[in-house]
Structure formats: C-alpha cells, structure tokens
Design goal:
Length: 314
C-alpha cells in the first residue's frame, strides 16, 4: 500500500509531541513493507531524505494536488493545520483519509472530524479523547509510538521540557528558587513562547532531536506541571528510562502514567515541592522508578497499532 502524510512541519525537524507521534506512526507503516511518504508545506531548506523507510520532502514549487496525482496514494494521513486541505483534496480523488487526532479542542479538530466519512479513519492518541469526539469515520486509539533508547540516567537534574507558561514554567522557576541545592534543567520545546530563567541552578538547553542522550540520560525527576496534556509523550519517554514523573492530574497524563504517576492537583509550588521531597528518600525513589518503567512497558505490549493495521488491510 501507499501512504502519503501531509503536514505543516517535518517530524525530523520539529521535535514536538504531535510530530514525533506522526514519525513513529509512519515508521511502523514502513516496517510493514508499505511505501510511505511525508510531504511538508514549509521548511524549504529541507532536502529529500529517506529515514527508516519513510521518504521525507517538502512541496517546493509544487502543490498538494501535484503530489497526490503523482504518487496516487491509497491513504492520505492528515494532522493539525494542513488537515482540512488534505481531507478535501483526497476526497475529490476518492482517496481514503487517516486523520490523527492529538487533542480534544473543537476549534482545531472538530471541523476536520465532521469532514470524514465512513470509509476514513480517525486515530486518537488516547481513549479519553476518542470516547468524547464524534465522527462518521472508523475510530481507533493508538497511544503514541515511542522510539525508545536504553540510557542510564546520572540523576543530576530535575527537568522541565518546554518551559512555557502552559507547561508550568512559573512553578518550575519557584521550585528552583526554593531549592538552591538542587540542579534543574529546562529543555526548549517545539511550540509556544519559551520562558527564560535567571537562576544559577537552572541550566537551559534548546530543543533537541537527541532527547534521550541530551535530557533523559541526565534527568532524575521529570516535572510536568502542565495546564493541559492530551497524552504526555515526554512522560512516556521518561518512564522508559525509569525516571519518576511528578505531573498535573490531567486526563492525558493519567492515561499515560496510570497509578505510576506522582500527581499534584494544585498550582501551589509548595504542593509540588512536597512531591520533590518525597523522592529524596532512595527507597521511595526506586519504587516509583520501577513502577513507572513497568507500567509503560506493559502498555507497549498492547497491540494498539496492530489492531488498527489489521482493520486497514481488510
């Protein structure tokens, strides 16, 4: 089969959850022996490249119509800002659509879900979103496919990834101020205004494509005081390395971490600090480290993608 993904940002460049989720999805399709293409509407400096069986390129002077007529895919994969165009032009040609849904915002996903018909697929990153969103398309849930690496953490830093206001940068800043004896790491995200810090015990690095080596290999605790997380890919990646996660009690993070997460249902810094102090006990730290790693490994065993792919082949 031929699959064509059309997106606004190249997953090989944009190191955000949605793009990394798309990348993992495309690589799984390529593993099955399919022809998989990913075309981006921007990033003109990007050159055509094949990575893990997936052909990446940008439109250059061409249009989506040109690419669709040239490749003639069996399925078009759409997500985020380019979805409306991809769905409309695919339907004109009788091409089925796989629409990847990463949040429950009606303003960003509702219109596109209504465009899908019964021969299309709506693939949700979590059950809590899939259960609430309405569509005529066939509905499947696939937890984001994590590209894991076996790294052993030096346990040096308390880490926040994407230090934006919505991800809890202010709480992170206060925690660093109140714990001058501890080392903190702020890692640049792919979206949103990135807050800057002026503290000697906060190290700041930019967005990285080598997050396991650059971040998780040095992280003791991952902080996620987020206002919203549809799933929380960073939490799942940290869990792969046995890094305990202190997280907001969002629906997405609860589905991602289950009982292995250390939750704070508060925006008060002192409540987050209590959880940091809890993990100073080595026995408690090791217990959560094993718990979170076992939890994510059990989730990986569930055949989310395989169940979807079997239906696709029918």
């Amino acid at each position: 089969m031929k699959f064509l993904a059309y997106t606004h940002a190249n997953p090989m460049i944009q190191g955000s959850g949605g793009e990394k989720c798309l990348q993992g999805f495309l690589e799984k399709l390529a593993e099955k022996g399919n022809d998989v293409y990913c075309y981006c509407s921007n990033e003109n400096k990007w050159r055509k490249k094949k990575v893990k069986g997936v052909f990446y390129d940008h439109l250059k002077t061409r249009t989506l119509d040109d690419i669709l007529d040239e490749i003639k895919p069996d399925y078009v994969i759409a997500q985020f800002f380019t979805s409306e165009d991809a769905i409309r032009k695919s339907h004109i040609r009788g091409i089925k659509v796989i629409y990847l849904v990463h949040n429950d915002f009606e303003i960003t996903t509702g219109k596109e879900l209504k465009m899908l018909d019964s021969s299309d697929y709506a693939v949700f990153n979590t059950f809590w979103i899939g259960n609430k969103m309405l569509t005529k398309a066939k509905k499947f849930v696939i937890h984001p496919i994590i590209q894991t690496k076996n790294v052993k953490s030096s346990r040096k830093y308390i880490t926040l990834i994407n230090p934006s206001k919505a991800k809890g940068a202010s709480i992170f800043d206060v925690l660093a101020m109140k714990n001058p004896d501890k080392q903190f790491l702020a890692v640049g995200g792919g979206y949103g205004k990135q807050e800057k810090f002026n503290r000697k015990n906060i190290k700041e690095i930019g967005n990285t494509q080598n997050i396991f080596e650059d971040v998780y290999a040095k992280t003791k605790i991952l902080m996620m005081p987020s206002m919203y997380e549809s799933y929380g890919m960073c939490a799942a990646e940290a869990a792969c390395c046995g890094i305990p996660v202190i997280a907001s009690k969002t629906a997405g993070l609860k589905e991602c971490l289950g009982e292995s997460g250390i939750y704070v249902n508060s925006l008060r810094w002192i409540d987050w600090n209590r959880k940091l102090q809890l993990l100073e006990d080595d026995n408690i730290y090791l217990r959560y480290s094993k718990l979170v790693k076992n939890h994510i490994q059990e989730d990986f065993k569930k055949e989310y993608f395989e169940n979807f792919y079997k239906n696709l082949k029918k």
